[in-house]
């Protein structure tokens, strides 16, 4: 509208047209901006949440505000199986999930979550950077439509209990809480224990009330969930070198431009590296911290535990073939 036209319009009419123009502009901006939901089951005190929030900020900045992302921690959008389903339904856009949960939809993905599958952290890192992981990720995407972006190191899982555990026989008939995914049961069953699936946010109370005798998680998680308050021993079995996968749901991924896909990939890969570095450092620091809290940290010989589990790697619980298993074992050799 030029100045001459503006002078000949009644003031009320000009004001109405101005408001309309502003409204159209704001509506266009709102339409262009999309808000994503990132769901996970971990506490706000854990690195996974911190780096998810960092990723949300980075994506908003790098896409120049085209995408914002709200992070929903601590099972606020459902249990782990719920948020996995949410990816395909489009009710969530991004999740962290264990490889064992992803393995329900595509068996080979679960191999990274099997007990004593990795020799040590370096073996895990070599797998995370390997062609094998990329191939398995592509297979998962083909089976589900969802897109694995990166592996985040979750830590070595250890057994907490009220009595010391030094050999597999000490786990005979032990009621041990495990996540509700079949591969988490491989280790306790091989050791003669009774694995009991319980939702993550219910574990503290289950231990406190004696519903189960034990649970297993990495040291940073044991601290974040305060399991040491209701268990006397942390037995360093290191039975699973565990991971979380950052996965973008198929409906969201398919709506992204190639440019934005690259931004999402770069951001989530960087967040995974930062998560991994923090968890490695935390594992190194926490033994002394737990001992200061009065919890007994029990060093164990892992060899007998490994020996009872290894025969199951290609047994009935395996959701991968022998070739995939051999390729993983050869990595880093």
UniProtKB/TrEMBL annotation:
Key word Transport present: yes
Signal sequence bounds: 1-32
Keyword list, A-Z: Signal, Transport
Database matches in CDD domains: PBP2_TRAP_Siap
Protein name: ABC transporter substrate-binding protein
Biological process terms in GO annotation: transmembrane transport
Gene3D superfamilies in the record: Bacterial extracellular solute-binding protein, family 7
Species, as recorded: Halomonas salipaludis
Primary location class: other
Subcellular location(s) per record: Cell envelope
Record's GO cellular component terms: outer membrane-bounded periplasmic space
Matches recorded under Pfam families: DctP (PF03480)
